[in-house]
Amino acid sequence: MRKSLVTIPAFVSLLLLASAPAQAVEPVVRDMEKAANAFIESLTKELTARAVLPMEAEGERTNWHFVPIVGERKGVDLKDLNKAQESTLTALLKTGLSASGYTKVENIKALETVLFHLENSDHRDSELYYISIFGKPSSEDAWGWRFEGHHLSLNYTIIDGRLLSTTPNFWGANPAKVLSGPSKGLRTLKSEEDLARSFLKSLNDEQREQAIVSDKAPKDIYSSDDPRVYPISSYGIAASELNDRQRNGLAAIIDVYLSNMPPPVAKERSEKLMGDGMDQITFTWAGSPEVGEAHYYRIQGPTFLLEYDNIQNKANHIHAVWRDFNGDFGRDILWEHHKNAH
CA 35, CA 180: separation in Å to the nearest integer? Predict the structure, then answer.
């Protein structure tokens, strides 16, 4: 029997998010366009040539990474910005993030300093993060932007004044828990780990047998930094097999990832997610359920894939990403836009 969602607090939250009209996102997009143009105007001619790149369906826009060194990253890095230019970039970043999402960005950057002291390695640098703007920010055309560096890749696509893609959306943390130094105890992606483990432990023996597909975690997330993502095996436990409390727990994990975005954007994304029905979402776990041991999970629906792992560095190194099967980089909608425009 299909279980009612309306009496469950987290699902009430998710459904209330889904009721928000798409128009609620319009102020976010206007602010984003204004901030992007202000950033471009603050740059020198040389920096503008590096920062502003062509807007196309494929090419550099889909050439994304989350590792520290990938040859020459396109765009302008923080090292080359003066304080005024960095201030305009901060304003742009804040248009695409919630307050908690922006704090995560700052913590991820700060972890590079932690790694520098741990490893004494030159490529660990909190200023090696790059901004790229694709096309001309305008409400009458297609444009996008990316902020990227080690363990971070934020991608946005806007077409005709509408924010149509916020993926790939990648977050990482190394160390996942800082063990020493001034930042000791910091856990940048704490909820992404703890809520998933709590959900797993809420399952009964039969459900856990469905959810855990292997006692060994994979080497990394399956989707990697591939330009295009496809559904992975649907093995795991479906939301339709959960009781109300467990469905509440699964929704709480999804809420953590949504909460990185500005509230109106999270509402619109939730509407798309819930429109396909919660029952079709599956949860899959691999590895150990114990703290400090390698583990992996994914949450997959008809339109999206959420992947997480904590495997490297003695299970103290997190990768987490949200991908959309048809929406990454606004690829399919952008193709239709260009086809109709020409």
Answer: 38
SS3 158: strand
For strand 169-173 and strand 212-214, is the pairing parallel, antiparallel, or unpaired?
unpaired
pLDDT tens profile 195-224 = 999 999 999 999 999 999 999 999 999 999
Q: What CA–CA distance (Å, rounded) separates 274 from 277?
A: 5
- Return left, alpha or beta for 313; rule: phi > 0 is left, psi -120 to 50 is alpha, else beta: left
Q: How many CA atoms lie within 13 A of 140 on its CB side?
A: 0
* Rounded Cα gap, residues 198 and 305, in angstroms: 20
Question: Above 60 in pLDDT, residue 336?
Answer: no
Q: Which two three-digit tokens encode residue 237?
A: 């436990």
Q: Where are the domains of the chain?
A: 9-22+189-330, 26-176
Q: Which tokens is 58 given?
A: 């494929």
Mean pLDDT of the chain: 89
Closest by CA position to 75, among listed 83, 64, 67, 84: 64
Sign, CA dihedral 332-335-341-342, equals negative
**Residue 51 is encoded by which pair of tokens?**
């920062």
The C-alpha atoms of residue 91 and residue 294 are separated, in whole angstroms, by 37
DSSP for 243-261 reads: -HHHHHHHHHHHHHHHTTS
In whole angstroms, what is the distance from residue 117 CA to residue 115 CA? 5
pTM above 0.70, yes or no: yes
Q: Tell me, letter by letter, the H, E, C secondary structure of 49-113.
A: HHHEECCCCCCHHHCCCCCCCCCCCCCEEHHHCCHHHHHHHHHHHHHCCCHHHHHHHHHHHHHHH
144 beta partners: 134, 157
CB under 8 Å to 41, separation ≥6 — which residues? Answer: none
Nearest 5°: the CA angle 23, 132, 229 is 70
Which of 70, 195, 202 shows the shortest CA–CA distance to 128?
70
Model pLDDT, residue 251: 92
